Amino acid sequence: MGKVKGGFFAELKKNGVEFYPGCGIKERTTFKIGGTVYCRIFAKRLDELSAAVKTAKKWGKKIFVMGSLSNVLITDKKINKVFIELGGEFYDIRKTGPSSVYAGAGAKIGSLTAFVIKNGLAGIEFMAGIPGTMGGAVYMNAGAYGKGIGAYIKKIHFMDRAGQCGIIENPEKAFSYRHSIFQENGYIVTGAELGLKKGVAAEIRKEIMLLIKTRHAKHPWKAFCAGSFFKNSPECPAGSLIERAGLKGKKVGDAMVSLKHANFLINTGNAGYGDVVKLAKNVKQTVYKKFGVKLEEEVRYIK
Ligand SMILES: Cc1cc2nc3c(=O)[nH]c(=O)nc-3n(C[C@H](O)[C@H](O)[C@H](O)COP(=O)(O)OP(=O)(O)OC[C@H]3O[C@@H](n4cnc5c(N)ncnc54)[C@H](O)[C@@H]3O)c2cc1C
């Protein structure tokens, strides 16, 4: 296929893909840190997503699939990547059986928990209060209280980097603690089907409200951050190690170890990417020196 005059953007336009060149991303992130991305695409259907992926591949553009940007620390310099956001049909949440639910990758976890309450479906109450999308949750195997969403997923719908769709059935082996195979294979999650249990709506609601209340009491949920910065080590929760190392309140510029929960690195105002990276490095070095434990980031660095 010959290249279209005008290049990448002209071809996106020709293919009916919605796009925004030179797009500031800071305000979209929960950290409130990030520069200008080369282009943001808003894909509302599978054919648009496929066209976007194929066009990016043809023109040698790197893509980054974004969810709610609640688990990322993005450089505040120029980002030479095409950010793809999933909307439209990717917001869909529907029942696919008496106790199974399909959620598109763009659906918010908050909408999913509201849906399971309404339909009296139990199992994923522990996801309450996680501020991401279904796609981000699958990619990260997000969860809490020793549980991950992966254990409840029966089918994953994906698109590979050539723009072809596929389904992974019974994907138990695709997940481990805050990890999924998507972190290696680069496939785009387009949706997932969850296997839940029938329950009583009022009880599910009560459990979810309680978990949100507990979360608000323990975490600096109003602060600009990306949730837990480090993964828990098998020996001890990361927050406990950081607190025992005396690092609560430690600052680099406007980046600070939260006083409320030591595993939250927060942006107290105008922190930049470099401030948070420096603070994280300092935390890792101090914890290693004191306890011999190597902390590993849960948050993804995007440059
Ligand atoms: C206040 C707060 C509390 C939090 N609490 C928790 C918690 O209790 N448990 C927990 O696990 N996490 C928690 N998080 C982190 C975060 O919300 C989760 O990791 C969430 O699942 C990330 O989803 P997202 O849509 O924001 O993904 P993003 O941050 O947008 O992306 C994260 C990664 O997923 C990839 N990705 C996103 N969508 C797709 C897709 N469709 N296909 C392929 N890759 C994709 C991105 O490319 C990126 O690499 C918290 C964050 C905050 C700010």
SSE map:
Layout: H1 8-14, E1 18-24, E2 36-43, H2 46-58, E3 63-66, E4 72-74, E5 79-86, E6 93-97, E7 100-104, H3 109-118, E8 121-122, H4 134-140, E9 143-144, E10 147-148, E11 153-159, E12 165-169, E13 175-176, E14 179-180, H5 182-185, E15 188-195, E16 197-198, H6 201-218, H7 238-244, E17 251-252, E18 255-257, E19 265-267, H8 273-291, E20 300-302
Parallel strand pairs: 2-5, 3-5, 4-20
Antiparallel strand pairs: 1-2, 6-7, 7-15, 8-16, 9-10, 11-12, 11-15, 13-14, 17-18, 18-19
Helix pairs in contact: 3-6
Bound molecules: flavin-adenine dinucleotide (FAD).
Flavin-adenine dinucleotide is lined by residues 30, 64-72, 86, 105, 130-133, 135-137, 139-140, 142-144, 182, 188-189, 221, 225-227, 300.
For this entry, give a set of tags.
Uridine Diphospho-n-acetylenolpyruvylglucosamine Reductase, domain 2, single chain, 8 helices, alpha+beta, about 300 residues, Uridine Diphospho-n-acetylenolpyruvylglucosamine Reductase, domain 1, 4-stranded mixed sheet, 3 domains
The main pleated sheet reads as: 5 strands, antiparallel
Tally the structural domains: 3
Using only CA atoms, what is the Rg?
20 Å
* Name of the CATH class of the largest domain: Alpha Beta
Poorly predicted regions:
none
Shape: globular
How far is it from the N-terminal to the C-terminal residue, by CA?
31 Å
Number of helices, where a helix is a run of at least 4 consecutive DSSP H or I residues: 8
